[in-house]
Amino acid sequence: MPKLCEPVVSIQRADVFDPVEGHLAWGVLIDRDLVAVPGPLEWLRDETIPLQVLLASSGGGTPGAVERIRPESARIVGLDTHAEGAAALVRLSQPALHRPVREAFDKRAFEARLAVDPDVWTALEETRGVPPGIRELPLDGVLGPVRDWEIALRRALVQDDSRGTPGEIGTLWCSISPWCDCPGRWW
What integer is the mean pLDDT of 76-84? Predict the structure, then answer.
């Protein structure tokens, strides 16, 4: 498996395999189990959409690393007077293997920026709370290769290890199983 660096994060429909077709929103992994997501957030309020979070990083010539993790909860954060400027914090059901984005965050600068423009994500971008440009990522250019990686990883998942004789199967099984040389039940 390739080194798991800072991933691209896509909020996905869990009922759609293709990452391009299932994409709902971009995000940023800010902690092993926490993703920040810019608005608009209509998809988050629609309880009929099954969700998962896709995290992917390049493999440098080999299929990249791809994780799909279900969200545990989501919190919408924004100003009452500017709901369309809200962002979401999505808690993952398990920690990601990928490395979170680490940015220095200046709370005072963030608050000052929000006082001028109530768009939470823009304020986060401008105060280094999240990397800039996430909302503008090219969908096909980023998630198209991820689709190919998932297919390649799935193809490589199964290894056919058929053998010609029962003895070969027994030897193979004992090389894999930790229980092969155990004496069994004593009663």
Answer: 86
Averaged pLDDT for residues 16-23: 96
Is 16 domain-assigned? Answer: yes
- CATH number for position 54: 2.40.10.10
Q: Is residue 22's pLDDT more than 90?
A: yes
Q: Which residues contact 106 (CB under 8 A, 6 or more apart)?
A: 127, 128
Counting the structural domains of the chain, the total is 1
- Range(s) of the domain holding residue 62: 8-152
- On average, the pLDDT of the chain sits at 88
Amino acid at 106: D
What is the DSSP annotation of the chain? Answer: -----SPEEEEEETT--SHHHHEEEEEEEEETTEEEEESP-HHHH-TTS-EEEEEEE--SSS--EEEEE-EEEEEEE--TT-GGG-EEEEEESS--SSPPP-----HHHHHHHHHH---HHHHHHHTTSS-TTGGG--HHHHHHHHHHHHHHHHHHH------SSHHHHHHHHHHH-TTTT------
pLDDT, tens only, 156-185: 888 888 888 888 888 888 888 877 766 667
Residue-wise over 54-82: b if at least 16 C-beta within 10 A, else e? bbbbbbeeebbbbbbbebeebeeebeeee
